[in-house]
Amino acid sequence: MSFLTDPVVAVLLSLALGYFIGQLRVGPVQLGGICGTLLIALALGQLGVRVSPDLKNTAFALFIFALGFTAGPQFFANIRGGWRYGIFSIIEIVTVLLLLAAAVLTFGFDAGTAAGLFAGSATESAVIGTAAEAISKLDLPNSDMVQMQANIATAYSLTYLFGLIAIVIFTTQIAPLILAADLRKEAQALARALGSTDDDEEEEEGLPLVVGRAFDVGPAAGQTVGEFEQSRNWAVAIERVQRGSELLETTPAFALQRGDIVFVRGRRNAVIAVTDQLGDEVPVPQGTGFALATRDVVLVRRSVFGHQVRDLRQMAAPNVQRGIFISRIRRMGQNIPALSGTVLQQGDVVTLYGPEKAVARAAQQLGNALPPGDKTDFIFLGLGVVVGLLIGHLSVKIGAMELTLGSGGGALISGLFFGWLHMRNPSHGSLPNAAAEFAKDFGLAIFIAAIGLGAGPDAIKLITQYGLILPGLGLLVSFVPALVSLLVGSKLMKIETPILLGIIAGQHCSTPTISALVSQAGNSIPVIGYTVTYAISNVLLPLMGSIVVAMARALAP
After folding, report:
1. Residues 274 and 401 in one domain
2. Neighbours of 107 (CB within 10 A)
3. Is the dihedral of CA 423, 425, 428, 432 positive or negative?
4. 326 bridge partner residues
5. For the domain that residue 258 is a member of, what is the CATH number?
6. Which among 234, 255, 278 is the end of a domain?
7. Which of 469, 478, 470, 448 is nearest to 121 (CA)?
8. What pLDDT, in 10s, does the model give residues 99-114?
9. Tens-place pLDDT, residues 417-426
C-alpha cells in the first residue's frame, strides 16, 4: 500500500483509472474523465495521500489560462453582438444562484457544499478551483477550511453525474416533447434554409464537397469567363480551357470559343447545375490539374462580421474570390455548418480551398492566416500565466469586504486577453488547438486528482450527512435553468428548436450534450447556438465560485 501513497503514483493512477471508468456509457450519458478521476482520487484519498498545493495550483493556473485563451476570440465577439443568445448564460447563472440560496437556507449547506453543488449541477469543473481559492482566503481555522474544500469535491462528485444526466435527457428527449418538435426534421429544414443541399449530406458521408469536371463549351461559346461565372453567382470557376492542343489559363476577360473544352471547378451541386449552359461532359484533359491549397484563416476583418458566407462573393472583387471555396468553419473548436447562409463572427476559423495563389490573396482580405506547424510559444504561454497570477493578487476593499479575482480569475482574464491578441496576430503566441486542449484536460485532471486525494478522508462524513439529498438537488438545479431557457427561447424569442437546444447545452458548458444533440439532429445545426452561450458561460461560470462562497456564508445560520 505504501506504493499507492506516493503522490506521483496516486495522481497518475487517478487519471488512468478515472478516464477508464469515464468511458463507460449508459445511452447518451457518459461519466467523463474528470468526474471519473475525482471518484478514483476520493477512493485513493482514504489511504491518506497528500499532494503538494504547488502542483495543484500550477495545474489549475495552466487549465484556466488555456480555457480563457481558447474562448477569448469568441467571447469578445459575443459580448458585442451575441447577447441575444448570451442572455441565456445569465438565465443559467441567476436561476442556479436562486436555487442554491434556497438549498442553503433549507438544508444549512456550508460554503464548500454549496460550491460543489453549483459546480456539479452546472457541470462546470472550473468552479471547484475558484471556490476552493475563495475558501482559502476566509478567516477560518485551518481544519474548517480543509473540511469545506473537501466538501466541494465530494458534493461535486455526488451531483455532477446527475446534473449531466438531467441536461442530456432534457435537451434530447424532454424538450422536443414539450415543444412537440421533430428535432431531426427541423434541423434538416433549417440547414436547407441556410443553403444546404443533398450534396452537403453526401460530403458528410465522405464524398468531396468541391469537384472539378470538363465540358464541351457548347452554348457558352461567345461569352467571357467572367460573364459565365457571374451568371452562376460566382459559385463555379472556369480555371482552364483546352483549345486545340493548347491548355490555357483563364482570366475574367477570357473569351470562350466554339470547340473549347472548359474545366469547371466548384461545389458539387453548382457544377452539376451548369450542364444546362454547357455542352456534353467529356473526360478531364490530361495536364489540367494544378496545385490546390487549403489554408486556415482567422476572421478579423470587421466588414464581414455578421454577414452570411454567400455575401463574401459580392463583397470581394472577382479576381480575389473566383475559384475560392470555404470548405470548413470552426467556432470555439467546434465545426459549424459551412453553408451559404451561415453567419460569420469574429474569431471564426475558415478553411479556404482553391488555387494556391488565389487562396493566399483571399486570406489577406479576410483576416490572418494561421501559420503552418504545431509548436507552442512557451514565452507567450508562461508570460500569460504569470500576468494572470499578478492580476489575481490585485484586490479592492469595499468597507470590511476585500474583493479579488484570485489566481483562477486572474489567469482566466489573462487567457482571454492573450487569446484575443493571438487572434489579431497568429504569427505570435501560438498555442495550437491540440496543445490548448491538452493543457485544459491535463491541467484540470491533475487539479481534480489533487483535490480528490486531499478530500478523501473527509468525504464519507458529507455522504453520510446528506445521503440522496445532493444527487436529487443535482437533478433539480440542472433541470430548472434549462426549462426556464426553453420557455423564454421558444415562447418569447421564437428561436428555432435545433438552435435553442444548442443554446441550452452551451449555457451549461456541456460537451456531451451537444454531441448527443448533433447525433440526434443528424447535422451540426445545434452547434450554431451552442458556441455563443458556451463562450460566455465558460467565462462567467468559473467566476461564480467566489460569489457562491460569499453567498453561502451570508445565508448560513
Report:
1. no
2. 15
3. positive
4. 352
5. 3.30.70.1450
6. 278
7. 478
8. 999 999 999 899 999 9
9. 888 888 777 7
